[in-house]
Amino acid sequence: MKPIGSIQTDHKTLDNMPIQPRGAGNATGRIVLQREYQDGLLDLEGFSHIYLIYLFHLSDGYSFRVRPFMDDNSHGVFATRAPKRPNPIGLSIVRLLSIRDNVIEFEGADMANGTPLLDIKPYIEQFDKVNHATSGWLKASDRAIMQARSDNRFK
Amino acid sequence: MKPIGSIQTDHKTLDNMPIQPRGAGNATGRIVLQREYQDGLLDLEGFSHIYLIYLFHLSDGYSFRVRPFMDDNSHGVFATRAPKRPNPIGLSIVRLLSIRDNVIEFEGADMANGTPLLDIKPYIEQFDKVNHATSGWLKASDRAIMQARSDNRFK
To answer: Taking the model in full, what pTM does it have?
Structure first.
């Protein structure tokens, strides 16, 4: 595993960040792909949304039980999207805005500035859209998600 | 990065596999998590769908341009879900059936038997549901996706 590029955002610290792309709203971010991988972007611009798979590089270690931002109770780490995980892999679905050479602009920037990028995959509705999902402990309203901001608990 | 467990499926070779969980239909798979991580599963059973993040362990190397199973044209590797990627990370959204101790049964098994698992995350509709996505080059019908099967091109 080695970074294929870096994600630039306005989030310089882990504090006060949006907790998901949906909470990031129209905050934009920029992927600077290493030039050697640029050819792999061919035809990506036809997709409205992409998965970004990246490293939670500011998190250190992990716990089996975590208290996520959206709940006062603790849950198993695999039942949350918290960053302190056995393999610190982050996953965000963001809206693709533009691709120019090796630079990708996107909307929904919920990751820290300087995040190392591992992979980009197209969001494909026919593969990925889930109907009638149930979401366990998470009962938050859309409004609460939009307004939630991180603190330093996952540093 | 180290595996947290292993995924058991009926797909013993890369040939003739479903190409996505949607194509796998009700084919079930089983995750055997290493015992040391079992506590991280607390409350996961409340979610109907989970992301599995894993290694494409049978793929070797990568190309920048690939011809995916669902198209006769080649595309940049990051505009496809093909396994031969710079970082060989796979992503599947599967339906959770049961959790018993360190064993998780799921539906939608589209990965090879013995796949090393890196992470499990809950699918959270409020975070992950995308409305009005456009899917670039992929024009296949649901029927075509259900019927598509892999060949050995990504070994």
So the answer is: 0.92
